Every structure is written in C-alpha cells, then in structure tokens.
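#lab-general

N.A. 3:47 PM
ok so I finally got the sequence cleaned up, no stray characters, all 327 residues accounted for. can someone with queue access submit it? mine expired

B.Y. 3:52 PM
send it over

N.A. 3:53 PM
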Amino acid sequence: MESSIIFTGVLIISLFLILVPYTKIADKFLFFISLTIILSVCIIILPLKIDSFYGYLLFIFTLLITLFHKDSIKSAYTSNQKGFLLIIFSEKYVNFFPIIGLFIFFLPFFIHLIKPNNGFGSTDTLLMLQGLAWMSYNFFGMSFTKEKDFIFLFINFLSTLFFVFSLTTFIFSGENDSYNWSFAIYVLLAKPLAFILNLLGFFTLVEMDSIWYQDKVTGVTTRLWIAKSCSGINSVIIFISAYSSYLLSDPNKPRELWYLIFLGIIFSYFANLFRMTIIVIVGHYYGIDYLLWTHENIGWLIFTTWLVFFWRISDFVERYISGVRRA
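B.Y. 4:20 PM
back already:
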C-alpha cells in the first residue's frame, strides 16, 4: 500500500478527531478516540501490510489531540469527576505512575542487554506502549478522565492478556507447540472453513492446519497452511481489551453491557472465518498472488468493520437500558 495514501489517511483521521469536539457529535469523542487507539495498536502489533511506523504516528497524534482539547473543549464536556483509576487508587499512588512507566518502558532494553536476540518484537512494542501509558497518565490532569483511563486500561489489558496467553501456551505446550496449535486450528478454523467452502460449491480437503483448494489459474490443487497468527486469537484479545477498557473508563455504563463481551467474541470468530473464506475464494479464482495480497490487506478492513458495527450495537443496547430505567 502506497505510503502517501496511508499518511493521508492518518492525517484525515487526525483532522476528524480535532474537529469532533466542536460538532454535534462531541459526546462521541471517547468513542472515536477509542476506535483510533485500537486501530493504531492493531497497525503496530499485527502483521499487516501497513508499516508499523504509521501506527506509532497515529497513536502519538491521538494523544496530542486529546491534550490539545484539554482546555479548548466545551466545559460541559470536560469532566472533573474522578475516573476509574482514581477510584481504585488514591491520588498519592497515581503520582508514582511515571516512575513505574519509566521502568516498564526500558524493561525491553534491559532484557535485550541481558539476553540478546534477533530484535524487538510485538511483546517489546507493547511493553514500551504500556510504559508510555503509565508515564503520560498524569500529564492530562483531571480533564478527559474517560479518554485517558481508556488508553491506560486498553494498553495494560492488551499487554497483560498477550503475556498470559504466551505463558499459558508455553506451559501447556512447551517450546515446541506446533502439534497442539495444529490440532486447535484444525478444530476451530480449518474444519469449519472447509465446511463453508464445500457448502458454497468449492472443492476443499483438510489436513490438520492446512486446507487444499483448487487454483483455477494454475490448474492444480494448492495447499494453504493456516498459521497461528491466522487463528483469530489476536483479534479476540484486542476486542476483550478494548471493550473492557471502554466499559471501565465510564463508571456510569450499565453493568448489563458486560454480557455483550460474549457476543463480541462470537462476532470475532465468525469475522475471521469470513476473512479466511474470502482469501481462499480469491485464491481459487485468481491465483496465489492475489490470495497473498488479499491476506495482507483484507484483515484490518474486516476487523474494523465488525468492531464499529459491534460498538453501534453496544450503544443501542445502552440507550435501550437507559430508556427502560427512566421509564
């Protein structure tokens, strides 16, 4: 994807965020900030075609825009009430956040000094983002408590869940977890994917974590290996982190909305199945080159689409619950 197009997209999103508080949808500022932070983190940590540099750029722009609106936004919207973190921790402990953030930020560098490897990975990136979230929390003062709580909680949930997932995988599978993952992918993805494709009239065969399909361009049956990164676990972790942070950052959210997490996980699973179905169909009709292009580009589009759709459902349910309670 052209760098100029991606950069233009980052600028358009940033401009939109700048203008939102001055429009009739100012009350949706947290919603748009949330989606932008999620998008930026996805660009940074997921294996997308988009360079991670633009994820960092969008993340920093979002933080700066939030800071920019600290004094200029309408006073009615700027809340001075305590946020979730100040309810949990006293202000005395929150003052130590920058020190904790510095330690977390430089932790990957210390680890690489002690045990050098091939370079920084997604775990190191998450730790650095986590450190930035801790260091910058007090920088915004008492303004935008919801926004800064969301950013802080999202980054910390994301980092913690990925760490727990990696640790659990290592404990139960050991260093060589290829067989366990192959069986999980066979049950949860490869077998349902083949069923859907066969139902649509496409000939497919399944072999553990691989699916065979007919390539009409070459005229041969081609093997498609499904990697662990294609299992959809990343999108589930991102969703759980984002939605939990969204609810916790606003103590006034109805508790019933927590039940929607299960609906979101189901959405995430079927969205990934839909993504893989499109990829195989493209490979069937147009060959391996177009299959690879679709694989690299369609994931973030489907993820963003279903996430926005789910958020709108959550907003509708929230308004319905609020209306019932007022009645």
